[in-house]
Amino acid sequence: MKSLRALLCILFLFPLTSFLPKAEWTPLLDKNLSQWETYLSYRHKIGYNGKVPLDAQGKEIAPLGYNVKRQQVFTVLEEKGETILRVSGEVYGCVFTKQEYQNYHLKLKYKWGDKKFDPRKDLLKDSGVLYHSIGKAGVDYWRAWMLSQEFQIMEGHTGDYWSIANSAMDVRAFIPEPPMVNAVASLRQPFIGFGAGTGRDGFCLRTEDRESKNNGWTEIELITFGDKSLHIVNGQVVMVLQNSRYVENGKSLPLSKGKIQIQSEAAETYFKDIMIKQIPEMPKKYASYF
Fold first, then answer.
1. CATH of the domain spanning 23-280
2. Which residues pair with 258 in a beta bridge?
3. 256: which DSSP letter?
4. Residue 5 in 3-state DSSP?
């Protein structure tokens, strides 16, 4: 009798699990860029020194600004049934989400176009996904982006961390020790601060290069929960970060939510399959990284 009751209990509970809410992927890209806004800075030249550029009369030149009509820096293409965002790169700036996000898993694919522009014509192609973006655009060195954390996208450097404006984060150091046991073991090192208030430049290199060869589509994933983040390239964790913050008037303040920016940074870049979903916790498969 007891066994029958137990069986009935199991049968009763089992269907209830199908009603538990499941996180769903939400597409962020459509042909009208309906979930995004744009900001365009300046047509930067070689020798830019971080100051607002001046015209021939010595007056400050205004940035192109928000949501410039008929701009061609951020355009959407339809190819073989796929929706693709083309970022021309010719003007520094960003396309950024209208909505703020917190505790999420973001994924997208990118590949490079052929064109490069000043001031990076002779440098590696460069772009990036900026997260936890707050405040006004144009507060960084290039006068192009919001205060944020950066998931770097660059030839041979995708997954690097950069701080934007006065942000900072602690990165689990990559310190090779012979023999190298595995990637997880190599990441079990102290966290080291980079960015505002740390005394270190605001960037840190990823653990390894995982980009697709021959300019194939590379998939990147950003997982961020609370003050922690993971940069993942083609399925491999290449950067582990925590204590996301920014410094204002000498005081560190938490930075764990905000808008998402995709950079225009002097290189033609294509993006597709931009998807996001909310997460209730840092996924268990990645818990050992922290």
1. 2.60.120.560
2. 101
3. -
4. helix
| Per-residue tokens: 23 | 């996180």
| Residue-by-residue pLDDT tens, the chain, 290 positions | 444 444 333 333 334 434 445 669 999 999 999 999 999 999 898 888 898 999 999 999 999 999 999 999 999 999 999 999 999 999 999 999 999 999 999 999 999 999 999 999 999 999 999 999 999 999 999 999 999 999 999 999 999 999 999 999 999 976 444 444 444 555 568 999 999 999 999 999 999 999 999 999 999 999 999 999 999 999 999 999 999 999 999 999 999 999 999 999 999 999 999 999 999 999 999 999 99
Q: Is 48 exposed, middle or buried (0-12, 13-18, 19+ CB in 10 A)?
A: middle
Tokens of 246: 């920014």
Taking residue 173's Cβ as centre, other Cβ atoms within 10 Å add up to 15
Work out whether the CA dihedral 102, 103, 108, 114 comes out positive or negative: positive
Strand-pair partners of 272: 84, 109
CA distance 247 to 285: 32
Place of tokens 């047509």: 43
- The whole-angstrom separation of Cα 244 and Cα 21 is 29
Question: Would you say 211 and 158 are in contact if contact means Cβ atoms under 8 Å apart?
Answer: yes
Residue type for position 214: N
What are the boundaries of each domain within the chain?
A: 23-280
Longest Cα separation, the chain: 94
Element (DSSP H or E) covering residue 115: strand 104-116
